[in-house]
Amino acid sequence: MVKTAVYGSGSWGTAIASVLAGAGHHTYLIGRHSDEIELMRRKRENVHYLPGVFLPDNILPTTDLTKLEADAVFICVPSHAVREGARRIKPYLKQDCIIVNTAKGLEEGTHLRLSEVLAEELPLMPLAVLSGPSHAEEVGRNMPTAVVVSASDKQTAERVQDLIMTPMFRVYVNLDLVGVELGGALKNIIALCSGAAEGMNTRDNAKAALMTRGLAEITRLGVALGADPLTFSGLSGLGDLIVTCTSQHSRNLRAGRALGAGKPLDQVLKEVGMVVEGVRTTKSAYELSRKIGISMPITEQAFKVLFEGANPDKAIANLMMRGKKHEYEPLVSFES
Ligand SMILES: NC(=O)C1=CN([C@@H]2O[C@H](COP(=O)(O)OP(=O)(O)OC[C@H]3O[C@@H](n4cnc5c(N)ncnc54)[C@H](O)[C@@H]3O)[C@@H](O)[C@H]2O)C=CC1
Ligand SMILES: O=C(CO)COP(=O)(O)O
To answer: Quick one: which residues bind NADPH (predicted)?
Structure first.
């Protein structure tokens, strides 16, 4: 029998544990707060992060890091905690254990993809990435979901596919690791902007424009970094963009709505109460696009609103009043 563990017991860690348990694996769900874990064990529910989802007996909530001695460990902490998390779990991992990152973001400062962060911290371990349109609230309730797994080698990706695929959790393999990771990380910026558009009552046309032109700039950055453009019309591109920009469950969309309605960022983050990855990712993607000379106008305006106090109305005007363009310009365009 395969032994699995999930590091991070928030909403996504709990949902991933429920898929693994549904696939028949005894799964340790490893959290850091003993009171939360104790409550989970007693109520068989993650009351704070995923209320209403029953945890079956083969999910074993714990704070005991020795339970990381598994065949596969799923990393389900926010992106800013991935490096520190990797250092923390390293002493407990088996040598041939597969590490599957599920966090969506870029490392602040270095702008590294999270598999690159993990490769630095856990250089000898096989690494994979799971991404795609998949809200915990639906996955935890066993609702039909399709995702994508990537790795730098086919065997690792297919092992993860075998491990976690169930009749309600369909897993595709895509070996374009760069594209899969960037699609999952960058869509959160566009979800924040789509939410802001809703919060400002700009309605549907603006949202559709943001999603479509957002995908264009995600693809532009991705291709410049070596991704296959086709990946961005797949589950970890268009698919994740659709779900995060439209779902009632999206944390990034909710945060964007509140920002668009004029609430300050600190208050918005407190009110959402779970990680809103798009905020940090906006900063990283903006810095990265400047560093390599790729035009990302929506990300640039999001950066100005989030970090420079720019007015969202002015941000929309800035996007609408840009110079005339052709819809399809060369994918790697170094204009400013
Ligand atoms: N919630 C969802 O539907 C999905 C989330 N994800 C990604 O999964 C990652 C985690 O997101 P959620 O579970 O939604 O966040 P969350 O806010 O629901 O839970 C985060 C969990 O990580 C823990 N945590 C925070 N900082 C930590 C640290 N320094 N060390 C160890 N644990 C720490 C928290 O205590 C909490 O248990 C994010 O990158 C998110 O983009 C991906 C797909 C779906
Ligand atoms: O990545 C996700 C769904 O695929 C989760 O998005 P949110 O963090 O916006 O809820």
So the answer is: 11-12, 32-33, 49, 104, 136, 251, 275, 277
- Residue 242's Cβ-count burial label (10 Å; 0-12, 13-18, 19+) is middle
Domain layout of the chain by residue ranges: 4-173, 180-320
Please report which residue ranges of 165-311 form alpha helices under DSSP H. Answer: 177-199, 203-224, 240-246, 251-260, 265-272, 277-292, 297-308
Closest CA to 62 of 93, 29, 33: 29
User: Is 187 marked active-site?
Assistant: yes
- Look at 336 and 264; give whichever has higher pLDDT: 264
pLDDT beyond 60 at 264? yes
Please state, in angstroms and rounded to a whole number, the distance separating the CA atoms of residues 293 and 277. Answer: 23
Closest ligand by atom to 130 CA: 1
What DSSP assignment string belongs to 40-86? HHHHTSBTTTBTT-PPPTTEEEE--GGGG-SSEEEE-S-GGGHHHHH
Binding pocket residue ranges, ligand 1, CB within 6 Å? 8-13, 31-32, 49, 76-79, 81, 84-85, 102-105, 134-136, 274-275, 277
Mutate to test the pocket of ligand 1, among 77, 106, 108, 246 (most ligand atoms within 8 A of CB): 77
Classify domain 180-320 at the CATH class level.
mainly alpha
In this predicted structure, the answer to whether residue 333 has a pLDDT above a threshold of 60 is no
Beta bridge partners of 128: 100, 151
d(CA 122, CA 103): 16
pTM summary value: 0.97
Say if residue 237's pLDDT is above 60: yes
State the ligand closest to the CA atom of 19: 1
Of 23, 136, 32, nearest to 81 by C-alpha is 32
DSSP state of 106: B
Mean of per-residue pLDDT scores for the chain? 96
Structure confidence by residue, pLDDT tens digits, 107-122 = 999 999 999 999 999 9
